[in-house]
Write a structure and sequence with these properties.
Chorismate Mutase Domain, subunit A, mainly alpha, elongated, 3 helices, 74% helix
Length: 90
């Protein structure tokens, strides 16, 4: 049995998918920029004799994302890893 969607529902779904596409584009742009900024901070810290990583700062980021549950914490860890770049390499 094949069910047909009513035109209004199909329009709503298309509209919502369009919004998701826009959100995905904004998220990708934000993640790319976050990565650039984070790597610039790491380079600046190392150039001034500091360490690339600041544990307390990373813990605050993880805490912020924890409002999304375990997936949020996992996302925070991924973002932090992306921002670090390859440790030991500039």
């Amino acid at each position: 049995m094949t069910l047909k969607m009513v035109p209004e529902a199909e329009h709503d779904i298309d509209s919502l998918r369009g919004e998701i596409d826009q959100l995905d584009a904004a998220i990708l742009a934000a993640v790319k920029r976050r990565t650039e900024v984070s790597q610039a901070i790491g380079k600046a810290r190392m150039a001034s004799g500091g360490t690339r990583l600041v544990h307390s700062r990373e813990m605050k980021v993880i805490e912020r994302y924890s409002e999304l549950g375990q997936d949020g914490k996992d996302l925070a860890m991924l973002l932090l890893r992306m921002g670090r770049g390859r440790l030991g390499h500039s």
